[in-house]
């Protein structure tokens, strides 16, 4: 603990964002480049080195947060990078994309703003790359065992890297033309530039991991053929089966799923397209769904030049502080008003004059869509709902809508490629892949991890699943394993 009074003398200071008018004219990350390092050592000083650090319990990776906070406060970046990478394969991903449940569990957060754990993590990761503290770590010897990992999102990449470093020959199969899963085509570049993904992929290639893009297992290669080639198979396909909105007018043109809209915008940034076929430019946009995916659509539509953007959230407007009765510390408070970068942009640019706060209408439920004579959506009818989602009389209203984006979450893995049926996998009633306490499915040698088995979750849980399933596969192949397994398949976040 470098400064025992740091938490009393130093206020919380977050990584500053670029001015709204500037950052909405490009697709670069929203933060001021280089502005984090000058402040982060003093922010790390705010860590109390408490005797029972609940940030450990709140983080499924078991990150050694007080240790690397202390090392950063002393500016020992190499040691901090070693501690951080001991539990997290991709801290530059979580440092940008994770909602930081560790901060919700910070002991200081009982009565003060939490330590900026996420910012410290990101600073360590970026400094590690700058200083060469994250070199490839190829295995000293090969085991002679082979593993296929299906899916190159955070779960698949974490599992592949762990298994490669353990000495197994690993091939990652990705159905898209580029690697990264949702980090590539689902997450907008203003939240995380794709150079961070490319850098890790190059590290993994140097360690010996093989990659097969544009290959859909179940279509381009049969499941039985894949099983015959490899000693073990890891299913890390994600939960890409999106939820639908069954209301009158859903068939109208101009109503799209969020995960049909976001990839097109990302492909423009990649240089594949000149303009997105689903561009929001000049359109009145309504986003149905109040989560992070909806916020990603919001920030994207603003950058594309939408005439207006409104986001509908079925939940009531939350308070700015946690409700200690229903979501007490150290649990993660779901119903707290948070202002993401995209919502800040929408608020300052006044994209939705009718909104309750920033661009959001709260306690709003969609009733129907109306279209024009050509069958294209032109308006959305909604009603206010109470806490039990019952319509409130006299609250109906209509919003102009030329483009409607559905961001309602995901139920499980997509089954259209035939992989689930070809393998004969047992499924859970909620649509996810069933597995036992060792991450194994009912098919010998086939394991399931990440959102495909857990259900829609956070990136930090995805990486933890990847590390844990790697330990299970290593044990299956060799009889024992020294790989860490931070979580079990039935572990869940802390709940009240």
From TrEMBL:
InterPro entries: 4Fe4S_Fe-S-bd, DPD_II, FAD/NAD-bd_sf, FAD/NAD-binding_dom, Glut_synth_ssu1, Glutamate_Synthase, Helical_ferredxn. One of its GO terms (biological process) is glutamate biosynthetic process. Pfam families: Fer4_20, Pyr_redox_2. Residues 38-69 form the 4Fe-4S ferredoxin-type domain. Keywords: Amino-acid biosynthesis, Glutamate biosynthesis, Iron, Iron-sulfur, Metal-binding, Oxidoreductase. Coiled coil: none annotated. Its EC number is 1.4.1.13. The keyword NADP does not apply. It comes from the Bacteria. Pathway: Amino-acid biosynthesis. The keyword Oxidoreductase applies. GO terms for molecular function: glutamate synthase (NADPH) activity; iron-sulfur cluster binding; metal ion binding; oxidoreductase activity, acting on the CH-NH2 group of donors, NAD or NADP as acceptor. NCBIfam families: GOGAT_sm_gam. This is Glutamate synthase. It comes from Streptomyces variegatus. The lineage of its organism: Bacteria, Bacillati, Actinomycetota, Actinomycetes, Kitasatosporales.
